[in-house]
Specification:
HAD-like_sf; Rossmann fold; six-stranded parallel β-sheet; 13 helices; HAD-like_SerB; 450 residues; amino-acid biosynthesis; 16 strands; de novo design (two linked rop proteins); magnesium; 2 domains; magnesium ion binding
Length: 450
Amino acid sequence: MKNYMDKTLFNLPKRFILTALTISFSFYTAAQPVQEIHSAINRSNTIEPAAINTNVQLLERGHWDNFNREQINALILKYGKHNPHYNPAAPAYIVADFDNTSVFLDIEEATLIYQLENLKFKVTPEQLNQIIRKNISAQNFVESYHNAAGQPVNIEKIAPDIIESYRWLYHNYAGLKGKQSLSSVQKNHHYQNFITKMRYLYAAIGDTFDHDVSYPWVTYLFTGFTAPEVRSMVKHTFDWQQQQNIGPVTWTSPQSLPGQAGVVSVTWDNGLRPYQEMKNLFATLQNNGIMVYVCSASFIDVVKEMVSNPDIGFAVNAENVLAMELERDHEGRILPEFRKGYAQTQGVGKSKMINQFLVSKYHYGPIFIAGDSEGDQNMMQDFKDTEKVLIINRLRKPNTDIGRFSKLAVETYGQQDAKYLLQGRDANTGQFIPSNKSIAYGSSTAKALK
């Protein structure tokens, strides 16, 4: 490690040893017995259990897998401010993904549903036509996106249908340029046609084209919004999602408006939930003087609202977010152009942004990474200073890096030098379970690997 502690006192390579160390502990939660403190100290491989008073906050038990919790607590003891060689001018830091890592499901996708259902747009039909076609070639979408008649669909077929329905809504809905209420326009078939084919298009693009095409596409739908307007919509989305049941929802476009694309259907996941353990993790790290950053493939203002709004409870500074960025006009309105000088925060782009904004600042990498998907697998392995990697177990395919890391986590489970920690969840409840195994939606059987 570089510059984590004062080098005149303490050289901090990965395998440093501290002796004759007195630690003060103070627990802000009552359920942390002294034997747990000793256990975390012993697992840190860096600290001898000396005189134990009261003065450190470690992770609440929650629904953590116990081994994962012990390993993270040991990391906190090793790099936190109660270590006498802690240097506040050069603190350790961690980087966590957000969607499906800090929360169950995806806040960007949930916001898209809210935006569609409530017709929250600030563009003309002509502008929307340009936006939904941006960087999308005319090749057919993959076979699973054929229409109800089994025919292939592409952007040249679906875009005219979307714009025809949006034009009707644009000129009739009072929230755009018309006079009718939302409940009134919702009764017209153009409403269901528009929201279904838009959500279908988002899914089809994601499964047909490379991530560098599909990931920015959804952010362009914020064109014309200001940051406060996006953040307000995200908070409304979050509040609405807390009232929704967890499970899949299927939309089908009306047969009365087949258009050029025909009748199509799309299924999306409902019921976003925050992981309480991740809230506690972020709070505990920061209370111990370890910096917390979030690196997400969602739009920057979406993530800023989620991590910094005190009513949501992640308690991370909005300035500590690295995410998808778009250009803005002189009045702060979002433009459908990716921000120059910024990498897309997915795959290798996450590592690029961490290097650009964090490694350049601290001159060392993150000690801990948390993620769940292929979009996180680069940052999980690109920094030599990273000691632990938390993987939220979504039962990923074994032929991906994230799948291989998950397998390695299972193989090294219980070993003190384990780098990868696999954390289980229950997709029926949207919460962690105290295991490295996960339960898929509709199942009651926990599995470690796909």
